[in-house]
Amino acid sequence: MAQLQVAIVPVTSFQQNCAIIWDVDTMQAAVFDPGGNVDRIMSMVRKLKVKVETIFLTHGHIDHAGGAMDLKDVLNVPIVGPHKDDEMLLSGIEDQAKMFEVAAPVRNAIPDQWLEEGDTVSIGGNKFQIFHCPGHAPGHVVFFCEESQFAHVGDVLFAGGIGRTDLPGGNHADLISSIKDKLLPLGDDIVFICGHGADSTFGHERQTNPFLVQ
After folding, report:
1. Is the pTM of this model over 0.90?
2. Would 214 be classed as within a structural domain?
3. Least reliable range by pLDDT among 19-23, 46-50, 61-65, 104-108
4. CA of 11: how far to CAs of 16, 87, 127, 151, in Å?
5. CATH number for the domain that contains residue 55
6. Which of 109, 119, 193, 195 is least surrounded by Cβ atoms within 10 Å, i.e. has the fewest?
7. Largest CA-CA distance found in the chain, in angstroms, rounded
């Protein structure tokens, strides 16, 4: 991670980990999953003195995408991701707000670009490979930087847990397959950050996560 730095900004009542990731040489940055509290996110952007070039979305749930359009308006940068299978979730963020009784105003999100399995995106000179990992949400994607041995997994995998699958479009079997078939083979030493809670490594989760060692 020497070339990349990460700052976590907890947002919304869900305490979602909005991540600002930047290249230390160029100070080029991306904001991942701005679920809300855009003023708080922008305060951190200014404090870090980074140049945000992209907003990346891992999936379309309100706590990850509820502030995306407002942040886009402030920064004038594109929204990229997730996979198109989350289009229904993103176009229904305002309905999600009613479902979860979220009082803060939110807007349906319209990405400028969808992501597909095998696509690559960059932050500065750091390339991230895209994995389509459904289960928590149909269009969930994971961002993996091989050079830095680092991944942003959104709500697919947590330290000691996995994403919930009882929401519309969720599927437990698909989620476990996404983790075991796509993420864990990347290597035990991969450090990941996730949508909620602490970071971990794939190796630690493979050996200790109760959902993976059954």
Report:
1. yes
2. no
3. 104-108
4. 5, 22, 26, 20
5. 3.60.15.10
6. 119
7. 46
